[in-house]
Design brief:
CATH architecture of the largest domain: 3-Layer(aba) Sandwich
CATH topology of the largest domain: Rossmann fold
Order of helices and strands: EHEHEHEHEHHHEHEHEHEEEEH
CATH superfamily of the largest domain: P-loop containing nucleotide triphosphate hydrolases
Number of domains: 2
Largest sheet: 7 strands, parallel
Helix content: 25-40%
Distance between the termini: 59 Å
């Protein structure tokens, strides 16, 4: 029997740096043929565009598959399994498959899907890599201390449940075979060591915690873990039990884990004149409206190159990624992601 093709699930909260990590992986793949499955939350395929634009033979456009019909962990049967089957049917099968989940997705349902009859003899989960925004964790953005949280619950009846964000974060950590503490350049050596130690103490036994800046890790560190995670589901169960399966119907794989808590919209603007001033304005809008994530592309007046924009919290990163193609509209398109109740009109007006 031929050996199974390994697949790596890259998960992590919004803006942790998953796409940057994968881009670095592709540009340093050392000839390994890697296929990508990318799940966006929102209507603008920014992550796929960035990865397709890396200009390397290891990330050909045909090797990048985008799933934008909803959260990947909610569309396993409709989108995910058929996509894997198409990759497996190709004459030039990939050496490795990398799956980038949305920041709002849970990795457990994807790992569980590798036990489906259609693919279980041909694919295996090499490992689950959870990317963490080290700067955010160092600021105490998520509550990991269950004892402290329980004390707060006892003192305040309004805290019966954790926020959806912290639940997602903890479940992504619970499934990890490797935790990547990213953005260590923002918190220094001592800060990075503190975050890594904290996450390592709360992780499952044997989970590796590695530190990096800009997702710059060797391919050999990320791929080739040989975990076989689909055979180890009991050890990586969802902490908060978001999923409700009907045990009497094996074909009922629908579940609900509260994506109504989040919303996104696409904002279209004309060319911008000053990238630095525009980035500063984005940061102001993000602060004022509690935007979780903002990403997209802009056209800069007088510049032939397209400006890529990635923002998480008030941090806004920009860089020119490629030239505009012939006939491509010189416009600015951004996807804005936040918790339900975003004031779309106010955000649009502030950036117009």
């Amino acid at each position: 029997m031929p050996s199974k093709i390994p697949a790596t699930v890259v998960t992590g909260f919004l803006g942790a740096g998953k796409t940057t990590l994968i881009r670095h992986m592709l540009t340093n793949a050392n000839g390994k043929r890697i296929a990508l499955i990318i799940n966006e939350f929102g209507d603008l395929g920014v992550d796929g565009e960035i990865l397709k634009g890396c200009g390397d033979a290891t990330c050909r456009e045909e090797d990048v598959v985008e799933l934008s019909n909803g959260c990947i962990c909610c569309t396993v049967a409709e989108d995910f399994i058929p996509t894997l089957e198409k990759l497996l049917a190709r004459p030039d099968k990939p050496d490795h498959i990398v799956i980038e989940t949305s920041g709002l997705a849970l990795p457990q349902p994807l790992v569980r899907a590798f036990g489906w009859p259609e693919i279980r003899t041909r694919l295996t989960v090499d490992g689950v890599v959870t990317v963490v925004d080290g700067a955010a964790v160092s600021e105490g953005r998520f509550a990991h201390d269950e004892a402290a949280l329980d004390a707060q619950r006892a003192a305040d009846d309004n805290l019966d449940h954790e926020t959806p964000l912290s639940e997602l974060f903890e479940d992504q950590l619970a499934c990890a075979d490797m935790i990547v503490v990213n953005k260590t350049d923002l918190i220094g050596e001592a800060g990075a060591e503190s975050v890594a130690t904290k996450l390592g103490e709360s992780a499952r036994p044997g989970v590796r915690v590695v530190r990096t800046a800009m997702g710059a890790l060797p391919v050999e560190v990320l791929l080739g873990l040989n975990i076989g995670a689909e055979d180890d589901l009991d050890a990586r169960h969802e902490v908060h039990h978001h999923h409700h399966h009907d045990d009497d119907d094996e074909d009922d794989h629908h579940h609900d884990h509260g994506h109504d808590e989040f919303e996104s919209f696409v904002l279209e603007l004309p060319e911008i004149a000053d990238p630095r001033a525009f980035a500063a304005r984005l940061a102001e809008v993000i602060r004022a409206h509690d935007v979780l994530r903002l990403k997209g592309f802009a056209a800069v007046a007088g510049k032939p190159m397209r400006l890529a924009i990635q923002a998480v919290g008030p941090r806004v990163d920009t860089y020119f990624d490629r030239a505009f193609t012939a006939g491509e509209p010189r416009a600015t398109r951004l996807v804005v992601i936040g918790e339900a109740g975003l004031d779309r009109a106010a955000i649009s007006a502030a950036l117009a």
